[in-house]
């Protein structure tokens, strides 16, 4: 999947790095704007947020943390923070104020491109209308309800259910689903998905429904219309 049609803002005062990242993103199909100052970026981005922001932490004018907070007040645009700070407290703070991902410098432009692609895939997956079957997902509270009954799901289970239900009937491999489960890109076995599906199914069954279907040799799909006999195949 390329970045065709994606609008990316690079907020970075290191001109050489910003140019390299811009070139990589443009070659992949993105439209890119560069801002070397936090205040300049806010003036441009607050009225019309792009599809994604690559945001340096240390900036002249307004710092990256303040830019992130300001953007979060008006938009859910994905934000990937870039910084030379490697201390865990900075990483946690960056994510707590609304950053979607975090990369420490020096970082490979290819890795940055891969992270941007991952965010673009998630946005496209989630842009589909929600299924009209009684499932309601509250993105802000990470809460799921089935016909008014709350499901006691973990954040990982919420992301799993969100990814599957975004396009009912579509089959996703375990590797595809893993991209949506862990925001810190930890290395885990794709069989971890099976454990999360098992736990999620148990919670769904408590409401009298199990819309998650195993597809032998491939992965899983979301289909609340499937019969019990078909689900067990």
Number of domains: 2
Secondary structure: helix percent: 40-55%
Q: Element order, helices and strands?
A: EHEHEHEHEHEEEHEHHEEH
Major pleated sheet: 5 strands, parallel
CATH architecture of the largest domain: 3-Layer(aba) Sandwich
The number of E-state strands comes to: 11
Continuous helix count: 9
The low-confidence parts are 126-130, 227-233
- As a percent range, the share of strand residues is 15-25%
Helix and strand content put the structural class at alpha/beta
Spatial sequence of strands, sheet with the most strands: 2-1-3-4-5
Supply Rg. Answer: 19 Å
Oligomer: single chain
What is the CA-CA span between the terminal residues? 31 Å
CATH class label of the largest domain: Alpha Beta
Mean pLDDT score, rounded?
Answer: 81
Q: Care to describe what's here?
A:
This protein is α/β, with parallel strands linked by helices. The protein has 2 domains: 7-126, Rossmann fold; 135-231, Arc Repressor Mutant, subunit A (Orthogonal Bundle). The protein is 41% helix and 19% strand. It has helices at residues 15-27, 38-45, 64-74, 88-96, 109-126, 155-165, 174-181, 192-205, 228-231, and strands at 7-11, 31-35, 52-56, 79-83, 101-104, 135-138, 143-146, 149-151, 172-173, 212-215, 219-222. The strands form 3 sheets. The protein has a 5-stranded parallel sheet, sandwiched between helices. It has a 3-stranded antiparallel sheet with strand order 6-7-8, with no helix packed on it. It is elongated, with a radius of gyration of 19 Å. The two termini are 31 Å apart.
């Amino acid at each position: 999947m390329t970045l065709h049609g994606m609008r990316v803002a690079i907020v970075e005062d290191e001109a050489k790095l910003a140019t390299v990242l811009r070139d990589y993103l443009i070659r992949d199909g993105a439209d890119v704007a560069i801002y070397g100052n936090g205040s300049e970026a806010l003036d441009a981005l607050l009225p019309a947020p792009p599809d994604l922001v690559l945001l340096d932490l240390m900036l002249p004018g307004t710092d990256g943390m303040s830019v992130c907070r300001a953007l979060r007040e008006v938009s859910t645009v994905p934000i990937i923070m870039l910084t030379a700070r490697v201390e865990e407290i900075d990483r946690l703070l960056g994510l707590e104020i609304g950053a979607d991902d975090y990369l420490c410098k020096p970082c490979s432009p290819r890795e940055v491109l891969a992270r941007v692609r991952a965010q673009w895939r998630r946005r496209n997956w989630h842009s589909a209308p929600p299924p009209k079957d009684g499932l309601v997902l509250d993105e802000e509270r990470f809460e799921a309800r089935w016909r008014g009954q709350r499901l006691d799901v973990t954040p990982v289970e919420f992301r799993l259910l969100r990814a599957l239900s975004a396009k009912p009937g579509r089959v996703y491999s375990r590797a595809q689903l893993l991209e949506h489960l862990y925001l810190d890109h930890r290395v885990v076995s794709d069989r971890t998905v099976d454990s999360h599906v098992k736990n999620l199914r148990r919670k769904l069954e408590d409401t009298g429904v199990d819309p998650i279907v195993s597809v032998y040799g491939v992965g899983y799909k979301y289909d609340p219309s499937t019969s019990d006999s078909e689900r067990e195949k």
